[in-house]
């Protein structure tokens, strides 16, 4: 299985050999939209820092309450992502 990142790397490598993007994508059967895509999502480091500070200050708050607080502060968040970040960072009381 070839990932999108690997496809982009191959196209970039062969483009440096004075070939056009269109030619290289056609040779490797890679959609040009895949190569040209740029994410517009804001970096998550500020959101994670805010979540970490809130979770440390309010150790007994669960994921849903922390999500509510972040939304109230104006941050657009998904409760499932918050739960995952809390699990990964061991930020809740009952976690090792």
Can you describe what's shown?
The chain has helices at 4-15, 21-28, 32-36, 45-57, 63-72, 79-89. The relative contact order is 0.10. Helix 1 (4-15) crosses helix 2, helix 4 packs across helix 6 (79-89) and helix 5 crosses helix 6. It is elongated and about 60 Å long. It has 96 residues and is mostly helical. The chain folds into two domains: 4-36; 45-89. The model has no long low-confidence stretch (mean pLDDT 86).
Largest sheet: none
Helices and strands: which structural class? mainly alpha
Overall mean pLDDT stands at 86
**What is the strand tally?**
0
User: What is the C-alpha radius of gyration, as a whole number of Å?
Assistant: 20 Å
Supply the number of helical segments: 6
Succession of helices and strands: HHHHHH
Which terms summarize this structure?
single chain, 96 residues, mainly alpha, 2 domains, 6 helices
Task: Set out the fold topology.
Layout: H1 4-15, H2 21-28, H3 32-36, H4 45-57, H5 63-72, H6 79-89
Helix pairs in contact: 1-2, 4-6, 5-6
Summarize the structure.
This protein has about 100 residues and is an all-alpha fold. The protein is built from six helices and no strands.
